[in-house]
Amino acid sequence: MAGEKPEESAAGLLAWLDRRFPVTSTWKAHFTEYYVPKNFNLWYLFGSLALLIFVIQIVSGIFLVMHYKPDAAQAFASIEYIMREVPWGWLMRYMHSTGASLFFVVIYLHMLRGLFYGSYRQPRELVWILGMALFLCLMAEAFFGYLLPWGQMSYWGAQAIVNLFSAIPYIGPDLALWIRGGYVVSDATLTRFFAFHVIAIPLVLIALVAAHLVALRQVGSGNPDGIEVREGPRDRHGRPLDTVPFHPFYTVHDLLGVAIFLLVFAAIVFFAPEMGGYFLEYNNFVPADPLQTPEHIAPVWYFTPFYAMLRAATDGFTWVLAAAALLTALSWLLTRRRSLRARLVGAVLFLLLAVLLRTEDAKFWGVMTMGGAVGILFFLPWLDRSPVKSIRYRPGWHKAVYALFIVDFLMLGYLGTRAPTPATHLAAQAGTLIYLAFFLLMPVWSRLGRCKPVPERLTFRRP
């Protein structure tokens, strides 16, 4: 209308939208009136970074799909065409490959923060479980995308991983045959992996991201002190005293982190996209040759800790696992804190596990160890029995246990990239035992020691 001020027009347009779509209420619910603890630190940045990388992967992936040919005879050539002929195609390809690796860097740090501050504890069990489901789907997404360049390492790596499914009793060979679409990795495998990587898994990931955020909003964010701020004192408006609105306090905080991350991201993309062969393996710049096996086959770096556990399972190692299962059965039976029925059931289950360890072949137990190393993370809310959530208030030696676990995981990741030797094999077996013991013995060691008193209100300095 003539004479109407611009701000009045904008307000009228916003009111028109609000009557038809919840723009203002959504903004308030998730930003200006979503209250979070005051003492967030750097560790709470990685969730936002993960969401940013997810968007980068989708956008760059859409661009790559426009030029990629999911055909065994043309896949590698289409990648070369993107790199050499398509305007800015090399940039999109390097953004996608770098984003894949940095996605896992950010996710691992995000999970580590949850481990440090007990973000999986009540009432956030479902938030953690949905996050682990996201991690599992992300691993599947990365695996399906790993074959698409149709280079030597991606081809033979996919061949080796798919062959693992044949170790599953009864259904394994048929399952591996179905996944490949034949007896070897071929054009049918490439087409299936392309469909999963581009359509199926991203849809599941989007749904899980939404569910993860909804569950987080329902129970509220945790904090480094492990204090439930929603149960603390409130002001006259009913807002928890130890909270601030997410916007503008943490949007500005996250934007600073995003700016620093994008600088690192750009530096890798423009100056070191291969990262010494860890982000892009040199064998993947050679077209896939089904008649020539590479000297050493290894997955990309973010799978190597679990790959090292897979290779650690030999016939002799299953004897060690069987002995550990027997000792666990005995300790479960002698634990008086549980009822007699619970002790008997637990002891019988571990005895059966010890028997199974000696009846199935080592390849099967390698697959089970690798799968169990991921699956056990889902049960973390019930394995941790510490009376406090945050590592800040746990005994000092608990921090040493966490440090040992981190070093062990990094060591397994390194060993997974190396060609197997007797020394690396023994180190991988020791690392696998440490990894499994960290979680399986957590109900015992997490209760031990004297914890520091947890303050009633949030703190801004470490105790």
Automatic annotation (TrEMBL):
Heme b b562 binds at H96, H197. Coiled coil: none annotated. Heme b b566 binds at H110, H212. GO terms for cellular component: respiratory chain complex III. GO terms for molecular function: metal ion binding; oxidoreductase activity; quinol-cytochrome-c reductase activity. Its cofactor is heme b; heme. Pfam families: Cytochrom_B_C, Cytochrome_B. InterPro entries: Cyt_b/b6_C (IPR005798), Cyt_b/b6_C_sf (IPR036150), Cyt_b/b6_N (IPR005797), Cytb/b6-like_sf (IPR027387), Cytochrome_b (IPR030689), Cytochrome_b_N_euk/bac (IPR048259), Di-haem_cyt_TM (IPR016174). Its main location: membrane. The keyword Magnesium does not apply. Keywords: Electron transport, Heme, Iron, Membrane, Metal-binding, Respiratory chain, Transmembrane, Transmembrane helix, Transport. It is found in: Membrane. The chain crosses the membrane at residues 42-66, 100-120, 126-148, 160-181, 193-216, 255-273, 316-335, 342-358, 364-384, 396-414, 426-445. The keyword Transport applies. It is a multi-pass membrane protein. Binds 2 heme groups non-covalently. Gene3D superfamilies: Cytochrome Bc1 Complex, Chain C. Residues 236-456 form the Cytochrome b/b6 C-terminal region profile domain. SUPFAM superfamilies: a domain/subunit of cytochrome bc1 complex (Ubiquinol-cytochrome c reductase) (SSF81648), Transmembrane di-heme cytochromes (SSF81342). The main subunits of complex b-c1 are: cytochrome b, cytochrome c1 and the Rieske protein. PANTHER family: CYTOCHROME B. Component of the ubiquinol-cytochrome c reductase complex (complex III or cytochrome b-c1 complex), which is a respiratory chain that generates an electrochemical potential coupled to ATP synthesis. Belongs to the cytochrome b family. This is Cytochrome b.
